[in-house]
Amino acid sequence: LLYTIKFEAAPMSESFAEKVREELENFGLDTPDDDVLVKLTGLCNNLAIKPSDFADEWMAFSVNNSNLDLDMDGLTKFERFKLSKTHQSPAVKKERKSVVNATTRIGDLFDDILGAYLPETSPARTPKSQKRPLESPGTFRVPKVSKTPTRGASQVSRVMSRDLPSSLSPINASPSQTYSQRKGSGEVVATFNEGGVKPEWGTSGEECVTVTTSATTLTKPYQFMFQKLSAKSEALDEHLDIMGEMLASHHGVQFDNMSIPAQGECRVVGRVCCDSSGKMNASSVTLEGSLELCNGRRVPVDLTSLERYALFPGQIVAMEGTNPTGRKFIPTKILDAVPIKKISAPPPSESVTILGACGPYTSQDSLSYEPLADLLKKVAEESPDVLVLMGPFVDTKHSLVEKCDVGEMSLGALFESQITYIAQHAPSHTRIVIVPSQRDAACDPVYPQPPASLPSSSSHPNLTMVGDPAMINVKGVNIAITSTDVLFHLSSEEISHPPGADRMGRLAGHLLQQHNFYPLAPPSEEVNIDQPHFIKHAFFDCKPDILILPSDLRYFVKNVSDTVVVNPGKLGKGSGTYFKMYVKGSEQIVNSTYVNVVKI
To answer: CA 319 to CA 200: how far, in whole Å?
Structure first.
């Protein structure tokens, strides 16, 4: 059914009109004329829409409908859209309710029939008062863990003490068959600068080294899931403006409005986007300009004149080319990215040894945490200055964790027991750096991610909890770390021509060229980005000497723009790998760094 409502020309409130004007100006929209404003006021009054909500909803509706203008025609289409959502047939709700009632009656009938054939004392008979309440479709219910352990390969016979764990497992889990059958333990599978530096393993002193974090690294929790669409839009536009100013200053050029026809050569800057909901390809690339320069408009890009390119959604690029009609930009050249500034500080004079790994720290068929136990044995043997451990520690994708099949211990207590065990079994003079993951069951699933909360951390002076991402400094060496698999996410979205031989190096180079830890926008479904905090805490404040990017992609160590990029792989995946690094004090850190990726 189609519903039509005739809005009367209600007297327009000056305060309401001013609020509407302010909200529209935040999105760079011109103030509508009085007739449109009168109709808009009546629409908002009848549908109980606030000015801020109207601006957000109008922008979403306009973008999804080929950038409609805010005039009488566009407002009429918006009105029909809102009314079609408001006046829905109640048949759907009635049908769902009838299905639920029918399910309840069938369940009760089945219980009555079953009870007729069972004795009164049978445990299979369940009184109606004790039946599990019926849940509506789509309701998520956390399964309760039974206090009495049941028999089975995945269940337990006793629970580990929370005070001082005697093993890394929360349960008496059987050893992992996958891990016990691994091959090549101790084999070096990747090496960097093998002939240039002679490593000297072990700590450089008896005292624990000091690790400092950069000013941009997140140090405390914050309220997430509270960002408004307007705040997200402002953050994205601010990011584009900052990168645009850097590109203009670096190349000494002034950028033009990409939506205005230009027969001659022009230069534009914008964010790479896809014109459809699927994966971007060479025919679906568009460029989105800033609100200040282009009013946020998007223009399709014809890549046929480019000899080479490597693009992904969210990438901010500057291009030279022509735009004869104003409807399609034809680039002939992509301007070089701006290099990250290197911090002006004296070069490190002391050597530093680092050992690190990324979770999960147990195989998928067990919660025995054997890989982590073996890694800690290596730490005790090598005695490095710094031990970098990246999550997940309690992986939400583990089959037993998904079922909450971890005995009587809660997931938070399990996480705390893992960190406590690590701190107690690592050498006291080794600095332990813990980086959380969004896949950690006991940590906030947001990016940037605050440091994990550990009540007992004060009792372990060699333990340092940082957020994800993090920039740390160890004896003058700048190390950038993120546990998020940005390489894998970029590899799924990037398009390039011609196909390059060093794809991993190119993917890692995107982070340095875009000056942030996660340049993909929109992000992967696995990553929940809080855009206002991302602008503050996910950008490089200086060029990193070491960049650690764990990924499900194959492990590697590469020199990318004079930065040593390390993908150590995952400790609990397949044979499992970790990395050992020796950095000798020198001006050219990339030439004085020795790295091994080793099978556990």
So the answer is: 47
Q: What tokens appear for 14 in the block?
A: 């000056």
What SS3 string covers 226-252? CCCHHHHHHHHHHHHHHHHHHHHHHHC
At 548, list the tokens.
């650690």
Report pLDDT digits (tens) over 196-222.
778 887 776 678 899 999 999 999 999
Residues 6+ apart with CB under 8 A from 119: 125
Give the chain's count of helices (H) and strands (E): 14, 20
205-224 in b/e form (b: 16+ CB < 10 A) is eeebbebebbebbbeeeeeb
For tokens 């195989």, what's the residue?
A: 363
**Residues in CB range of 458: below 8 A, 6 or more apart:** none
Among the residues of 338-387, which ranges form H helices? Answer: 370-382
**What are the pLDDT digits (tens) for 180-198?**
788 889 999 999 988 777 8
**Kind and range of the H or E run holding 92:** helix 91-116
Q: Is 422 in a helix, a strand, or coil?
A: helix
In contact, 450 and 220? CB cutoff 8 Å: yes
Give the other-Cβ count within 10 Å of 99's Cβ.
11
- Outline where 65-90 has alpha helix (H): 72-86
Q: Is residue 125 scored above 70 in pLDDT?
A: no
Residue 132: what pLDDT?
43
Rounded-to-integer distance, Cα 143 and Cα 53, Å: 37
Q: How many CB atoms lie within 10 A of CB 595?
A: 24
Query: Taking a C-beta distance cutoff of 8 angstroms, is the pair 349, 308 a contact?
Result: no
Q: How far is CA 384 from CA 168, 212, 461, 467, 486, in A?
A: 21, 17, 16, 22, 27
The dihedral built from the CA positions of residue 93, 95, 100 and 104, taken in this order, carries a sign that is positive
Check if the beta carbon of residue 519 is closer than 8 Å to that of residue 239.
Answer: no
95: which residues sit within 8 A by CB, 6+ positions away? none
Q: Supply 21's token pair.
A: 């004007």
| pLDDT value for 553 | 93
Q: What is the mean pLDDT of the chain?
A: 82
Least Cα distance to 597 among 551, 557, 554 occurs for 557
pLDDT in tens, 350-395: 899 999 999 999 888 888 889 999 999 999 999 999 999 999 999 9
Place of tokens 């093998």: 194
Q: What is the DSSP letter of 66?
A: T
The two three-digit tokens of residue 347, written as one number: 């070069």
Name the more confident of 452 and 349: 452
Nearest to residue 531, comparing CAs of 153, 232, 131, 298?
Answer: 232
Handedness of CA 421, 425, 428, 433 (dihedral sign): negative
Please give the torsion angle defined by the CA atoms of residues 372, 376, 381 and 383, in that order, rounded to the nearest 10 degrees: 130
The helix or strand, by DSSP H or E, that contains position 460, with its residue range, turns out to be: none
In the DSSP assignment, the letter for residue 387 is E
pLDDT at 139 over 60: no
CA-wise closest residue to 360 among 335, 393, 324, 382 = 393
- Residues 388/355, Cβ–Cβ less than 8 Å: yes
pLDDT band at 111 (very low <50, low <70, confident <90, very high): low
